[in-house]
Amino acid sequence: MGDEEKRRDVVATQIGSHFKDRTTPEFQLTLKSILASKEIMHKAKLGFAKWIIDAHIPFNAIQSPYFQPALDVIAAIGPDFKGPSYDEMRVHLLVNLKKECQLLVEKYWSSWKSTDCMLMADGWIDQRQQNLINFLVYCPTSMSFVNSVDASNMVKTTDTLFTLFSDVIEWVGPSNIVHVVTDNAANYVSARKLIHEKYPNIFLSFCAAHYINLILKDIASIPHIANLASVLST
Do 63 and 105 have their domain in common? Predict the structure, then answer.
């Protein structure tokens, strides 16, 4: 069979998916029914949009990985499905989700115990100029987000950082951690010493990415590099 014949068969199959067998012409989809299906689809999306706007749900909630699977489950059940009530949502379903989350955490803990892990602290400033510190745990099986601390109003003294790190280390499990990666600032250096004194089994190091950023910042401050960057940006 040639390429042209294969192409015709593919097209015929695609077209045929919209129609029943020719021996039953009474079941053939009409243009009116196809347009009606599109209208129903539009009404469904419009109703969903009204609910999102009325409930003041941010539009980016649609990008949640749980969004489409939830719709798929509802579509599989069909018109008999009724949404959860207010009491179901705030009591029973919330408890079930908490149990599910706890099982997931226990799964992570078991993997940390079997393979050991590395604790990483990532400090950054968001669009609202909040100074945040994110704590993440890395192990051979996965990387997990642990906690995010708003440090905007926090004086980052050595003792404060030591307490902050100690709380996270205790939650993850000191015996599960073999390595901690921190920022390169002077107060972090002092906090590292206290952490090592309390947890001698944990090796601590600075963030290589932060080192590279500092090096590039110094390079950018060199006059002829700064002038070149200024010319290229215009």
Answer: no
